Model the fold of this input.
Amino acid sequence: MTMEASAEPVLEQADGQVAAKPVRRRIRPRDVRWIRAAAELAGTFLICAVIYLSYSFGQLVMGQPSVVLPVLGTALAYLVVTAMLGGVSGGHFNPAVTVAAMFTSQIGMVDGLIYIVAQVIGAIGAGAIAVAFVPVSRVPQRTWLMFSVNGFSGGSPAAATLSQQHIAFGAPMAIVVELIGCMIVVAAAITTLRSDGRARRNHALYTGLAYGVGVLVTYPITCSGLNPARSTGIAIFAQSKHMAVSPISQLWLFWICPLLAASLVALVIIVTSIITDNMAMHAMGIATDAQPVAQAQTHADAFAATGAQTQDQSAQANPAPVQNTAADAADAADTVAPADTTAQAVDVSALSDTDAGQDADAGKQADGGQDEVAPVDAGTIPDLQVEPLHTASENEEGYEEPKDKPTEG
Done:
């Protein structure tokens, strides 16, 4: 058995008495809230800075626009930063992800609003850094920023190439691709968060892959918005750089599409959860209804089996005769012992009362006063005879000796 050490150290004095425990400052919920918001601000700042610089410098260095570098830069930036700070704040770094988390109750309303404000501030700081470090000696700033500012139609990064073919991507096409890309990103981020908003182990990997797929779909048309904070941070500082199309005028699309995609994803998740819960409750109800019936049937079977067993045991212990009832009764009658052959009865039917009295007196004199009972035939039931009562006169007459009897000499 192992003993776990106490989290709070105990101080002992010299005399062996326990001293007072040191007072520790407890972290309050609002402190945790601000720590998480600071993580969201720092993470969004790092991600947007990598995106702005890689899009601008990478495209000019390579000589021609390419989607490979934006895909790799965006995917790796989200993957690394989410792995770093996802354990603190959940790794949103995108207002669309935060809105979806608010709808699915993975984060509170107040915390969600604080997250969004922190994300926008982080993106604005990254935009300021990107514009400040862009060299303007030979290449104007608008040339540097055209590959990192989100836009459609004339503001698309492929607008110059498409204009030669008299092709332009308008707002409908931009809305479609942004909705698709944002739904992929939001769904991957939300499904890898726990119910309390904490990030799972695969959250960083899935989020990075989802952003890579989203950039692959949207970059040629809108320069890959996918994140309202990312679109806002660079649009604010590119507004005064004489861009072909005002970035602020097209910023609405890069807020509406991500938020709409977040709402659709949250709605699908909520509906799916409701349907799953109802199916589980229905299955549980069926099982609960079937359980009493099964129990009653089981009890009935057990009762029937117990009754049959008891009946068999009773039959074995007390077998009841079914046949030969009359023969058994006759045998029982034969086994009855006959009356005692020594039983004697006095038959006085043929004698008169006088003879019976004389015979009784003579018997008494001969046997010294003992009654003698005549034997009766075997097999006859002796009749109960009542001796006649002898009065005092009869006794005196029968037993009184004559007074004149002479005595022997």
User: Anything to note?
Assistant: The domain at 29-282 is CATH 1.20.1080.10 (Glycerol uptake facilitator protein). The mean pLDDT is 74.
